[in-house]
Amino acid sequence: MEQTRSPAGAFNPLISRQVPGFHWVAFLTLCRRELRRMVKMAAAFLIAPALMAAIYFVCFLFGLGPQRGTPEGDAVLTYLVPGLIMLSILLRSAENGGFMLLYSKIEGHIIDELMAPIGAREAVPAYLLAGVVAGMGSGLVVWIASLFFWPLPVANPLSALGFALTGSLFMALCGLLCGMASTKWDHISAYFTFLFTPLSFLSGLFAPVETMPATVAAIVRLNPLYHAMEGFRHGMLGGPMPWGSALFLGLSVVLLYALAARLYASGWRMKS
Questions:
Q1: Which pLDDT band holds residue 195 (cuts at 50, 70, 90)?
Q2: pTM listed for this prediction
């Protein structure tokens, strides 16, 4: 008996259309799209941060004046290098997380994501992964460049990697939230100018917090970026493990992730 074939596009009960709890295909597709976009902009994420860090280092090197080559001057440069590496990681993670989402909103690509069976469980980790990869890649290039200027042995590689990843994830979340809140390029540029850059510079980047006035030091210690800097500097230079910084930074990541997932799931400012 000849079987009748259903017309093209007809419903086939043998094909499962149940959306899984975590849509791996959607997640991997978004990751691939964001990573390809990041590769096209590799010069902005890799070369520019290394050049900026080199300029900072040279300025400090010449600014030391007579102390250049002395134990005090060497201590300043040793303290500076981990901060410059972490600064590149933090800013590039935020840039990638925020600018890529805003680009999708402005170009209208976000509508395709909202209509497809892609939820916050897949989209938020995909954007964050792209941000972390951009930040860590940028930090790796800056670290390699620093070896030509001021080579430093890494005292605790696992600690340095852990704080770098956690700090990168924190800033990728911050960038993603700013991308959600922004509707044009001027908005997200303002976040970097008036929020991220001041927080990065007021994080113990250039000077130990112990040398600051008590009131300023107390305010700086409330900055999650300070704890990322301190933890990464511990990994690079050694010293007692800053468990308080690890806990503070980890809790900050958990809270921001919960907020980002909730806002993305609700579609907050995604179509505006």
A1: very high
A2: 0.88
